[in-house]
Structures are given as structure tokens and as C-alpha cells.
TrEMBL record:
Pfam families with a match to the protein in the record: F420_oxidored (PF03807), P5CR_dimer (PF14748)
Organism whose genome encodes this protein: Marinagarivorans cellulosilyticus
Residues noted as binding NADP(+) in the record, renumbered to the chain: 7-12, 68-71
Stored NCBIfam families: proC
Primary role: Catalyzes the reduction of 1-pyrroline-5-carboxylate (PCA) to L-proline.
Cross-referenced HAMAP family: P5C_reductase
Domain Pyrroline-5-carboxylate reductase catalytic N-terminal: 4-96
Protein name: Pyrroline-5-carboxylate reductase
Keywords associated with the record: Amino-acid biosynthesis, Cytoplasm, NADP, Oxidoreductase, Proline biosynthesis
Example of a GO cellular component annotation carried by this entry: cytoplasm
Single biological process term from Gene Ontology: L-proline biosynthetic process
Amino acid sequence: MSNICFIGAGNMAQSIIGGLLKSGSRKESIWATARSEDKRTNLADNFGVNTTDNNVAAVEACRIIILAVKPQMMFGVCEEIAPYIQGKLVISVAAGISCESLEKWLGKNAAIVRCMPNTPSLIGQGACGLYANANTNTLQKQAAQAILEATGKAVWVDDEALMHTVTAVSGSGPAYFFLFLEAMTQAAVEQGLDQHTAQSLAIQTAKGAALLAEQSDDNLETLRKKVTSPGGTTEQAILSFEHSGLRGTINKAMAACAERSKVMAEELS
């Protein structure tokens, strides 16, 4: 794989760097930029990669550029590196910044891949949506997928508008499950379990259910029904969820998330 440079070195950049190194990338082929000397020192100590505070120097040394700065900083960074990206692949992990905006700032011929990773990427269990603009060729798409798969699962969408839905499903999704686990734990404590036992059981149950869903040939509905014996305990819980309108609540929450993503995209453009 070509040399890769990360503009910005926050948690998401570090998780991708860590994943790349674990999957066999050479540390000498990775560059990372950061304004903070302490952060550059930590990157060098923890990963052994090249570090600099000079974005242009890093971009000139690499064929793949990953923009991992905050959305509010993106315009300034793009303006700085735009003259140096001809023929290179630019991958943006910034939420809400459209390819149209990036093309405006980097140049209309720029090869751009947008991605929406999530926080489980930090432990190699991420879920990431990808979208490529028309300037991105097949080899560049393959390179982008290989980079993001170093931190988990990466899937493509063929319509950039669907990145708002990706945000609602996987980008923001971990927080939904954390909330559900909080509620389960609290309910179990109120029924008599201690906090540690309740939380451990809830987390392991979620982990086991997710792994079973991933590995089973059954679809989600079938898996649910296999646990839900007629007249049994699980059925009573499921009926309570259904009567409380859980599906509608989830639908509204994800719609609100996607709508906020659209508004942010307009504000940041």
C-alpha cells in the first residue's frame, strides 16, 4: 500500500493507525501531523510513525491523505494542501462535510472518499460507511476499503445522501446501545442485583446476541422468535416493548439523527 498521511491525530486517526500497523502496514509508510509537540511525541512513542507539524510536507510524502481534523477546521486544511494533492486519494473522516464541499476546497478533479467510522473502531470493532466521488478509481476505492477495514467492517453506499442514514445507524448507533444497556442495568439493580453483576450480565448479553446474529444463518426476526416461546417470559418483555411503541421510538430517533446530519452538512458547507 502507498504511503499514508493523517492530517490530524485524534482518537479516530490513532485507531486507524493502530489498525493499519496490526494488519501489517510498515510504520515507516505512515505519516501523521499534529500541531501539539506532545501529541507528536506520543504518536512517535506509541506507534513509531513519522510525525510533523507541516501538513504540506506530509502530503508531499504520501499518495493517500486522510483528513481527520474537526469539521470546523476542514476548510483551512483543504485550502493549505489543495495545490499538492494532484493524482492522490483523499479520505475524509469528518462528519457532515460533503464531497461537493471538499471538491470546492480541494479542486474539482480531486479523488475523494467520505467515510463515517464509529467509536468501536478504537478497539478494532468499528462499522464504517464509505462513499466515493466520480473521480475515484477502482484501485483507490480498494485502498480506502483496506484502510478502514483495519478497524472493523467497511461497507459502500452508492448515493452520498445515504451517508446521513449511515450516521443514524452506525455512526451514532453505539450510543443507542449504551443507553439500552444503561436502562437494562438500572432495571436489574431496581429488581435486586448489584450494579457490577447487572452491568456485566447486560454487556455480555449484548455481546453474545450481536455475535450470534453475525454468525447465524437466521435473520434477526427468526433469531428473536427462537428466544420468544409462546406464553413464556421473553414474550412478555417483547409484548411490553411493542405496546410501548419501541419500533416507532427507534424510527423517530434515527430520523432525528439523520436530519441533524443533513443540517450540519448545510452549515459546514
